[in-house]
Amino acid sequence: MSLPPRPRSLLTSRARIRLGIAAVGIAVATGTIVFHILEGWSIVDSLYLTAQTVTTVGFGDLAPRTVYGRLFATVFMLLSVGIVLYALTSSVQSIVQSEMLLTFGQFRRSRKMSKLRDHFIICGAGRVGSHLVRGLKAGNDPFIVIESNRARVEELMDQGIAVLVRDATLEETLREAGVEHARGLAACLPDDADNVYVVLTARDLNPKLHIVARAAEEQAEGKLIRAGANRVVAPTIIGGHRMAMALTKPAVGDFLDSLTANDLELGFEQLEVEAGSMLSGRKLSETNIRSELDIVIVSIRRSHGEIVFNPTGDAKIELGDMLIAIGRAEALAKLTALARGRALAGNRANNRVKV
């Protein structure tokens, strides 16, 4: 889910406030210097009278005595009143306008969020969450980010990403993000205790939700699993394994890096064999998935939980199986359509994937 960039008028309002403050500052500095020169007063006395003039207070204990000083004071009073009124009206108008824009924007985002179904919720857009956000955005998957850090919120909103500026550990926040209708949730907060609380709350609100949690400390993995997380990712542990592989098995590490960077234009996909699929009930060797689509089936996860790694051609595909495949994006899309029982668009009798 993406939103249009923030209105430029919000930035214009801030510029008007800065301009008003600068105008008042210039007026005070000008009045102080001129009164000091014309009347011969000290800088403090000159500033004192200038402040009285600008604010229209006028205590009457100090007044210009020279002709030029009084002439300047007359002109200065007329100009300074206008400057102060401009600064005040601009500030009030800008603040009200900014609040209205933010309120309207939040209302519009809330309406869009309430209509979302089968989306992802990202709790925290820090070092880990930001990478996840980029991945989901590249894949055009609908998602919402819950973030309380103002600097990160600004960056996300500038990219047109839907952001809920809330505390992700609160139940009402997850409800507002549509957790009851979400497809998955990622708890990427920097504190393990907060992630445990998010997982507990989300699991209670949606028992079928697929939850992935980040673990900053290795001992937090068990707690997150018991709280209801389906998967736990510990970046430090994964980073250590990758460094060990890069050190001891550099060729394998290079291959994995090329997959991550998509240098080979390959990707992994998981697809479930649904009712009506032409793949159901056939052996891998009978589908010609490898020869026609140039896709490798890495493993098959049976509906009862068994995992068949590197299945042979005699492995039979059954209804409800989860196929883990690697191949090019276009070919994977075709295989996904076959697994879901859909006909491939644009196929002809002489150019059809054989199953």
Describe the protein in words.
With 355 residues, the protein is of the alpha/beta class. The chain folds into 3 domains: 9-112, Helix Hairpins, CATH 1.10.287; 116-233, NAD(P)-binding Rossmann-like Domain (Rossmann fold, 3-Layer(aba) Sandwich); 266-355, Regulator of K+ conductance, C-terminal domain (Alpha-Beta Plaits). It has helices spanning 9-39, 43-55, 67-114, 127-138, 150-158, 171-176, 192-205, 220-227, 235-248, 250-261, 284-287, 289-293, 329-339; strands at 120-123, 143-146, 163-164, 184-187, 210-214, 231-233, 267-272, 296-301, 307-309, 322-327. The strands form 2 sheets. The protein has a 6-stranded parallel sheet with strand order 3-2-1-4-5-6, with helices on both faces. Strands 7-10-8-9 form a 4-stranded antiparallel sheet. Helix 1 crosses helix 2 (43-55), helix 1 packs antiparallel against helix 3 (67-114) and helix 7 packs parallel to helix 8. It starts with 8 loop residues before the first helix and ends in a 16-residue tail after the last helix. The relative contact order is 0.07.
